Amino acid sequence: MAAMLRAFKAIRPSLGFSVDEPPKTSSYTAELFATVREDGRVGYLTRLVLGGRDILEASFKLDLLFEDPWLSEYTITIQKFPRDMDLRRGLLSSAWQNLVDWVANRDATVQNATGDEVSAAVFLKKMKDAEDGPEAAATRWAVVLNDSARLCLQLQGMHTTAASLNSKPSLKRYHFVPGRFAQVD
To answer: Where are the domains of the chain?
Structure first.
């Protein structure tokens, strides 16, 4: 799934940095907020917010993330408004979220091979009672450049828990402070 984002630019006072949203005039929009120094250079603190009037829908077969053959018959569909994708400050991606949490929170639906919806309770029980132990996968939203050098929104997935990915130092954002590094939340 890739949604094409339309970028907007405007100069706004710093008071709006944390609360402004991009215009809702297009299907999907992105707006970059950044601190700018007196000399015109962009500071380390940036924020990308997504907006638009349309709901995004991502759908994929679970065998993309899992090796167990019984999962190959399932497809998951995630729907979300761009404004609800909480991209982290200084990064172009959201935090990782467990796939089972998407289903448990009713933010995603699961379909079987014939396209019939599988109840969340049944699917979550199957994931928990898997033969080799509970199944785990995590997904996140990320703003990326496509092959045509255009901004796109992408759903990314890994075959591990969100806690293990969100705690990795290499997946956190750091900025340089003279004499030391400091983590940016």
So the answer is: 2-173
